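Example complex used in Figure S2.
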Amino acid sequence: SKKALIVGAGIAGIAAAIRLAVKGYSVEVYEANNYPGGKLNQFEQDGYRFDAGPSLFTMPQYVDELFELAGKKPSDYFGYQKLDPVCKYFYEDGTHLNAYADAGKFGNEIQTQTGELAIAVKRYLENSSRIYSITNHVFLERSLHLLKTYLRWDTFKSILRFGKIDAFRSMHNANQSFFKDKRVVQFFDRYATYNGSNPYAAPATLNVIPHLEQHFGAYFPEGGMHSITSALVRLAGSLGVKFHYNSPVAEIVLREKKVKGIRTNAGIIGGDLVISNMDIWFTYNKLLSTYPKFHPQKILSQERSSSALIFYWGIRHQFKELDLHNIFFSADYEAEFDHIWRQKDIYHDPTIYLNISSKYKSDDAPEGCENWFVMINVPANAGQDWDALIVDARKNILNKLSRLLGKDISPLTANENILDPRSIESRTSSYQGSLYGTSSNSQFAAFLRHANKSSKVKGLYFCGGSVHPGGGIPLCLLSAKIVSSLVD
Ligand code: FAD
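Predicted assembly (488 residues):
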């Protein structure tokens, strides 16, 4: 059988391995770390378990699909439960909002808490759903870069409806046209951060994201987020995929314009095709550094998505008013994004995302305690003085949470770990520590993501959050699906 070599065991690399194994390839995955999953990793400290990266699980059907493809029953490997409410929101003015899973109930909640009419929320979500029905086939589910994509009738229709996908104004401007209440505008603006973008710049097309969350739902995997990785690695193993850990790939070996294999610390390994799950910037600049003529300069110089600063705190207390997902909004969202995107530092009043998996999985923390994942959005790494920025941010976050929860948090913290743009970059080779590859701050971003197949080198493919269709678990899984549809 033909041999496929995969660089990186991130979620997209694992999914690509499964798909190619099902197609009959012999598949080997080379991973730099001594564990699989890349950003989708976990760690433990003093009886607390923490998911290190992603915490929000949407579109679980793309995970299930991989088991079904292999002729297995998803629930034998992997279970998850639907969230309701999806998330709790806390505003500086004292407003609390529950984002209920049911759209009608959620509309009523908005009306009760803010005065904005439920019917306005309904209209908004209908618009969001419309954008989804137009964009889904074109932008997400297949290669944008093949001529044949454009020749399909449904694709062609979608392009003709380009005006209808609201690409020519910002998310924020669109949201202001739907809602009078600033809190509701802020609520919907936040969805820009789901792919590391800026709602004041990103096209209103991204207002499709609330539809994905509302319509398809948000979920919690029974074993925590990391069980997505472990279940898929088990599935891949059962299909004969071989994983090599502690095996950084140093080079993709070419002969003229064709892939020959890869070079690792064990020497050169030959293969019929190579799929890079490494960030596209590093794939070219490290693995193909001797072939500058193949580097797509325009794509590689694009603006990156934002990064994150995360404090993992073991907390010796339980907060009844908190849920799995909680947001503590900044009083001035525009100023916060101005700091992230223009000043490239951290605003003194950041929006705080607090995730507590022990709310759903009680053994994630000792009895009477909670495992806090406290994250703020920060700029991509451009050599800022992160140590100084982190000291300030830590203080501001503790003050804000203590004030809004009416309890001094600092004395409750049993332990602390920190992840910042530098460590995100070094642990998973994500250029500038960006979470989602390139940003979507322009209406053309979707067209400027790197394709899933090289147009210059035969046998070379790409998957993962830095290439088409984009970052986040669902899109990474789709990138693997597209790769699989492109190989013979
Ligand atoms: P990555 O996870 O980036 O992994 C790439 C792998 O390749 C790594 O294991 C790396 O070691 C390996 N590798 C790189 N170079 C080499 C080499 N030369 N040789 C061998 N191996 C190599 N998404 C969501 O859907 N929901 C969320 O709530 C969410 N929150 C997030 C929060 C944080 C803090 C972070 C960091 C990300 C979050 N994301 C979220 C984004 C999501 O984690 C990513 O989009 C996704 O996991 C990226 O997967 P990937 O396949 O591109 O690979």
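Residues 7-13, 30-33, 38-40, 53-56, 248-249, 277-278, 308, 310, 424, 428-430, 435-436, 464-465, 471-473, 476 surround flavin-adenine dinucleotide (CB under 6 Å). The chain has a mean pLDDT of 94.
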